[in-house]
Amino acid sequence: MEHHIKELISQLTLEEKAGLCSGADHWHTKAVERLGIPAVKFSDGPHGVRAEDPHADRPYTFIPTICFPAACATAASFDVEALEQMGRALGRECQAVEVDTLLGPAVNIKRSPVCGRNFEYFSEDPYLTGKLASAYIHGVQSQGVGTSVKHFAANNQEYRRMGCSSDMTERTLREIYLSAFEECVKTQQPKTIMCSYNKINGDYAAEHKHLLTEVLRDEWGYEGIVVTDWGAVADRVKGVAAGLDLEMPGTGGMNDRYIVEAVKNGTLSEKDLDKAVENMLRFVFSCADSRREEQLDLERDHALAVNIAAESAVLLENNGVLPLGAGQKIAYIGGFAEAPRFQGGGSSHLTPSQSVSALEMARAKGRGVSYTMGFLVDEDTWNDADAAAAVENARQADVAVIFAGLPEAFESEGYDRTHMRLPDCQNRLIAEIAAVQPNTVVVLHNGSPVECPWAGDVAAVLEMYLSGQGGGEACDRLLWGESNPCGKLPETFPLKLEDNPSYLNFGGDGRNVRYAEGSYVGYRYYDTKKMPVRWAFGHGLSYTSFSYSNLRFSADTFADGQTICVQADITNTGKIAGKEIVQLYVADQNGTVVRPAKELKGFTKVALAPNETKTVSFTLDPRSLSYYEEKINDWFAPTGNYEIIVSTSSDRKELSGKIRFETKRLLPLCVDDDTPLDVLDRDPRTHDAVQELIALIRRKIPMIPQTDDEDTAQEMGGDMEIPLKCFVIFEGYPREKMAALIE
Ligand code: BGC
What we know:
This protein is an alpha/beta fold. The protein is built from 21 helices and 25 strands. It has a 6-stranded mixed sheet with strand order 9-14-13-12-10-11, with helices on one face. Strands 1-2-3-5-8 form a 5-stranded parallel sheet. Helix 5 runs parallel beside helix 6 (170-188), helix 11 (298-312) crosses helix 15 (471-479) and helix 12 (358-364) packs across helix 15. It binds beta-D-glucopyranose. Beta-D-glucopyranose (BGC) binds next to loops.
């Protein structure tokens, strides 16, 4: 439908303009009926449609919808197709319950395992996060429904989330905390972006001109609206000027009046307000024009939720005890067997259309398992009699499967965990059972990593994460071999919380939190430090096995504006069909700047029948090799060598090879007394000018051969690293001549 936006703006009163930029109530924007401007409706996501029932007599009554696995789980699928399918289903459900825009995906990076909201976020890695979130957005928006990529930006803890300032360098911000947003914006144009409550380097996200206008719109070309997180406004007028379009849920007209006053007294330009109004009009019309009749199909979508949960589970350990076999005596133990925790607490918590536990599934399928609860799901209390019954049941069985996990109260939106442990009662029971039953399997239900002190003493560990309403069914299929586990960890499981790179600074003092670890987040840190971890980023087992071979590149060298294709062959070497998640990491070998040992720059999930081989392909561009260079405020890959690793997890190297990249771009070079000789020798702009100085050292140390060879050059390095001033101090090089050279 054609809408004459500019004309509409000219017909709106100042009060109506201000009014369009805030909510009418908790979920709706305001309509302007006299001009045919509709209201639109938001609803929480991200892993389901949490639509309030308009006919209910109590608030917070939600229409039963599908509770898909939370992002902690779907990230482990490494499956863009699954995320897109889930997005399409969510979009259809939104249409059915008359929701115009779904509040998700949430793409904040898991800086620490104890952030209370990690279950809603994808990963410690921005590349994986960006790709999966983009697929989700693509799916939802293909149904004419908007998304809201949240929480922009650097909202990585719940502690004092309303006011704490996340303080970091521009490089850290760009590489780790903005990258996923950038990918979503550039590839999907989400209809909305939700700015976070916190400050970034001292400014509220809702008033952050650098982020909301310079980065988001000017650099990335964003065309949608920026909406606040619910209540994230400090100074509404400053927000309008910074590029904030919509305040939700609104302040009953108070902030609208401030906007009107500010325009009248000249502290806010009407042009800035008009920009927000124009964005809002495009947004509301695009939502309203996309509405269509749709019916909820809860059976079909439940089946999809089960499939995605099965794609997302990660088999962390297995000595062969899994899958379980018919004819074995199996004991199920632990409250999570009958009451699995499958979603997290807070604004994403919804009313599922149905859910079946793993225990109910096993009973329904006549698997003949015995069950002893052993511990409750929501308490850390030890009961001697219950525990003894569980240990006895386990001892008499062929295999004991313990359904463990984090109680609801341990992790939620609104607060962070203070430790990374399971309840003590669970750890104790697992240890006691493992002592009498060598075939002990632990199934985990948690939104974020936990310490697993018993990991070496049990036969298998299956990580279900918060797997949505289909989790129990998926778990049953996986345990009994009807599905083959094929997820991998989207985050590192450190041995203990203290190993995490943000440990010393996480939380901060409540006003400021320093991101002192910079880009060394997750495996970027553990790998660079060569630290042992419990399970590495990208780790996950299967009931079959895979081999990697034949790494090849479309060229050995590539340059600015070009791409290179990387291929490898993956073979299923086991006896059953399975899926392997193949990962590509890039390692800069030039030592040019402080950089993580390697970074994920590609992944793909490949399904293989027994003995089948398939070729996987990745495309790398200069950005894949780049870090964010603050000297040029841009991404930059230095000329030189890069190792390309194709592997099954971040701590392994199935295949590796070297490529070379050549760039004509040069970083600004500032030459002064302290500039070392080697820097000037390497730089084409100064190479010729310093040859006289190099000759001087060579005369002094004649055994240094003239060479372009890198290794010999490195040996010479000590002398080549001397700063220019030393030629004056030690070599008698005339001071005036040096001043002229520096000029
Ligand atoms: C959360 C958002 C959510 C919003 C609306 C906020 O507290 O941070 O993620 O979308 O509430 O419920």
